[in-house]
Amino acid sequence: MLKQYTFKELSTSALTALVTRNADDTHAIQDVVQQIIADVRQDGDTALLSFASKFDKVDLEKLYLDKADIEELAMTITRDQQRALEIAFQNIHKFHSSQMRRERTVETMPGVKCWREPRPIERVGLYIPGGSAVLPSTLLMLGVPARISGCKEIVVCSPPQQSGKINGFVAYCLQLLKIDRIYLAGGAQAIAAMAFGTDTIPKVDKIFGPGNQFVTKAKSVVQSMTNVSIDMPAGPSEVLVIADETANPAYVAADLLAQAEHGPDSQAVLVCTSDTILAAVDSKLEEQLQILPRAEIAKMAIANSYAVKVDDLQEAMQFSNQYAPEHLILETDQWESLTRYISNAGSVFLGHLTPESAGDYASGTNHTLPTSGYARSYSGVSVDSFVKKITFQHINAEGLNHIGSTVEILAELEGLHAHKNAVSVRK
Ligand code: NAD
Prior knowledge:
Elements: E1 3-6, H1 12-19, H2 28-55, E2 64-65, H3 67-74, H4 79-97, E3 106-109, E4 112-120, E5 123-127, H5 136-149, E6 153-158, H6 168-176, E7 182-184, H7 187-196, E8 206-208, H8 213-225, E9 229-230, E10 238-243, H9 249-260, E11 267-272, H10 275-289, H11 295-303, E12 306-309, H12 313-323, E13 327-331, H13 335-338, E14 347-350, H14 356-361, E15 387-395, H15 397-413, H16 417-424
Parallel strand pairs: 1-12, 5-6, 5-8, 6-7, 8-9, 10-11, 10-13, 11-12, 13-14
Antiparallel strand pairs: 2-7, 3-4, 4-15
C-alpha cells in the first residue's frame, strides 16, 4: 500500500524532494487566497455571506450565533459527550497552567535590575476548522491557553455547517470557555475578516488555528499585509512513525490511518528498520481501512504517503529530523534512549501505548502544531503564544555609576552622541 524508499539509496536531492510538502509551487492556492482577501476587504460581510454560499453551500441570515443559540445547541449532546469534553478541558487546562511561570529579576550589575513580565495579547482570533470534519478539540486547544493568558477579546470563527449553525460539541466547548459568540465564517475569508475587520467580525491582533491549505496560506498572506501576527503555519496534518522489530503492526497502521483520515492532503510516513514489520503494517492498513467511515479520504492521503526503510534507529532519526514532522511517534522499546536525538518535531509520542490521538484530544498537550517542515523553527501553540513578554529595567545611582561609562563609550563609538548624553546628564 505504502510507496517504499530505502534511506541509503536516496540522493540528497531525492531526500529533499521527499521531505518537501505543500509547496504550492504554481501559486495556485496563493492566487485563490489573494482574490478572497481582496473581496473581503472590499465587500466585508457581503463577501463573507457569498463565500458561505459558494464554499460551505449554505445561505446564512446572519454571520454569528449568540449565547441563546449556543445554549440551545450545547443541549443537543449527551452527558457522556459533555463529560469527555470536560475531561479534555481540564487536562489541557492543567498542562497549560504550568506554563505561567514568573521569571526572576536579574541584577546584571549592582543597581542594574532587569526582568520580563508577560501581558496578554488583547484581541485574539481563533480559527476552528470545519470543512471535512468539525474540530471542537481545536477550540479547546486554542481557547484554554487564551483564557489562561487573560486575553480580553476572543473572536472565534468556524465554517457554518449545512444547518447554517455549528455543531453541539463546538457549542459546549464555547460554554466551557465562557465565550458567548461565534462567527460563521470559514477558509481564507475568515482569516481576512479577522485580519482587517468587517462590520460584523472584529479585527484582532493575532490569528491562531490550523486549517487546510487555503487557511494556512491566508494566514501568511495577511501577516505580510497588516500588523496582525499569526501563531504559525499549521496546515495539513502529518505524522511520522518510527518503528523497529518491537513495534506492533496493528498499532502502527492505526496511527498512520488516524492521520490519513484528516484529509487527502494529510501525510503519514513510516520509517522502519524491519522488512517484516513493513509488510505486516501494509496488510494491517488494508484490513483497518475496510472499517473506516472516512476510508476514501484516508486512501487518498495514503497515496500521498510513503515508507522509508532504514538500517537502524539512528538512521531513522536522521530522516525524521530532516522531515521535521508535526507529530512523531516512537514505536520501539528503545524510545527512552532515542528521545535525545530528536531535534525537529512538533509533538512527540513515546512507546507502544501512546497514540497520537491522546494528544489530539485529551492528554493535555496542544494539538495546534507546525506542519510542512516548520517544526524546524516553530513551536506548537502554548500559553506563550497568547502573551507578549515585556522587558523592564530599573537603574539606581549605584547602577548608573557601574554601567554609565560603558554605555557612554559604546554610544560614542557608534557616533550617537545624544545617546551618550542621556547618560552623562544623569551622572
Ligand atoms: P477548514 O476549516 O480548514 O477549511 C474549510 C474551508 O475551506 C471552507 O469553509 C471553505 O471556505 C474553504 N475552501 C474549501 N475549498 C475551497 C476552494 N476550492 N477554494 C477556496 N476556499 C476553499 O477545514 P478542512 O478543509 O477540513 O481542513 C482542516 C485542516 O486542518 C486539515 O488539513 C487538517 O489536517 C488540518 N489540521 C491541522 C492541525 C495542525 O495543528 N497543524 C490540527 C488540526 C487540523
